[in-house]
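The protein record filed here:
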Amino acid sequence: MSHNPSSASQEAISASMALIEDAENPIVKIGAEYWRSLRGKRRFPSRGDLALRGMVAILPYSVIIAVLDGGADYEYRFVGDAQRQAYKTYFKGMRLSQIEIGAPELGEVLRDVYELLRSSGSPLLLRGKADYDEIDSQQRYHETVLLPLGASDGVVDHILVVGVHVPSPFWKISDSSRRTLATQLNPPASAA
């Protein structure tokens, strides 16, 4: 069989990406604005810049993920209540490699997204149908922003995720926005 799971996973990701400026949900917008406010003129803020006081509105919808060994694995360091409820599990302390064993399709998509963010250092906004049973069967769609964090502008060592689940989609991404996003995520190679 010539099916390439990574290729299928990448297609699923790119079909649902948008620019973070296009966030529609107020919680997701607050998460993106908070990240921008911490970043200042840097490429991205550090994990140490995050403060509970600044995250009060987004904390239940947040996940903080540590990048281990340059992306060999990822560990869930903080999981907000809304995220626990959406996934029907408390996954703080769990590693992505454990998810890949227990839920290979979900693990593959998560790894592809985390790797794209880690390698590009660019924030991502994902939208789409939630393909898992949620605690409230009415919450079928998600809008999620993934935001890079790092002590230096060259290395992403943590990821801040802010996501919500809603009954119906409230977004559309134009082909033009998708092309703009692809260009930003895949800049031309620089001469060595």
User: Anything to note?
Assistant: Helices lie at 5-14, 26-39, 52-55, 81-87, 96-102, 104-120, 175-185. Residues 104-120 form the longest helix (17 residues). The longest strand covers residues 141-149.
